[in-house]
């Protein structure tokens, strides 16, 4: 039986994108939480929880982008011109955020300015990722395997609301991570902050889901036609169960459970996205097979990925193992 390489590559890219959201999501979320904590010591602790790992988290963004370029060049050459502005702004946000990490630790008089750069860069990057997601969901106009739309087709109420949804998701992930990594008064404040964030997250998920189904006939047909609803219904049911579990774990003062359940919500959201657009890689009509590069190109790239990807996964697992445990005020910071 011949290996279906487009499906394999779709799984690899999907894995890379999900791991990126899972890992870089919580450290972008910490930037979003900074405005709620004015105390310098608390901000230092928050930054120190991600200082050893944040740079490695972005490896998976590179993996997803490079995989898309090599395995699905038609999708790559369509998605980029359709979203040049939000993608450029996302990179600008990541640059400001990275610069803030490096420079705020050395700054004295300008540390507040670098805090603002960290907040603004995190918010801009997260918002733009959500806008790109929204533009993908609402569909991209393609003629003869080329983008045929307007440069500002990405800008719509739906895509902007998806950007807001990603902001809330990342902030909630950040809360879960900080509950896991901190203790004492800071941990108590974060628990209090996470409760309303989870409620807003559930509302955002419900609204985006409803908006997607009502506004996109192809998605509505996928979910409700041909008896598919019975197979897909566990996704929203499990999202509600995870939200209930987060509220319960916050009440019982569990430390790891809020973060793990928020990750589960992200996975379920990602699953819902795949269900809604599969087998299209660019909705409404470009499938993974139509967008694929040649079989020899995909096979060549797959050999390298099979070698490199386990190394990346082991490296990332080791950094979290080495830097496990609580972070306390007064611990060695980012230098």
Overview features:
335 residues; mainly alpha; Formate dehydrogenase/DMSO reductase fold; 14 helices
Helices and strands, with pairings:
Layout lengths: L4 H29 L6 H11 L3 H4 L1 H13 L1 H10 L1 H21 L6 H28 L3 E2 L2 E2 L9 H25 L2 H32 L1 H8 L4 H4 L1 H18 L5 H21 L2 E3 L3 E2 L7 H28 L13
Antiparallel strand pairs: 1-2, 3-4
Helix pairs in contact: 1-4, 1-7, 1-8, 4-5, 4-14, 6-7, 7-8, 8-9, 8-13, 9-10, 9-12, 12-13
Concise overview:
The protein is mainly alpha-helical. The chain has helices at 5-33, 40-50, 54-57, 59-71, 73-82, 84-104, 111-138, 157-181, 184-215, 217-224, 229-232, 234-251, 257-277, 295-322, and strands at 142-143, 146-147, 280-282, 286-287.
Describe the protein's architecture and organization.
With 335 residues, the chain is an all-alpha fold. The protein has a single domain (5-322), classed as Formate dehydrogenase/DMSO reductase domain (Formate dehydrogenase/DMSO reductase fold). The protein contains 14 helices and 4 strands. It has helices spanning 5-33, 40-50, 54-57, 59-71, 73-82, 84-104, 111-138, 157-181, 184-215, 217-224, 229-232, 234-251, 257-277, 295-322, and strands at 142-143, 146-147, 280-282, 286-287. The protein has a two-stranded antiparallel sheet. A two-stranded antiparallel sheet has the order 3-4. Strand 3 and strand 4 (286-287) form a beta hairpin. Helix 1 crosses helix 8 (157-181) and helix 4 (59-71) runs antiparallel to helix 14 (295-322). The longest helix is centred in the middle third of the chain and has 32 residues, at 184-215. The protein is globular, with a radius of gyration of 20 Å. 41% of the residues are buried. It is a multi-pass membrane protein.
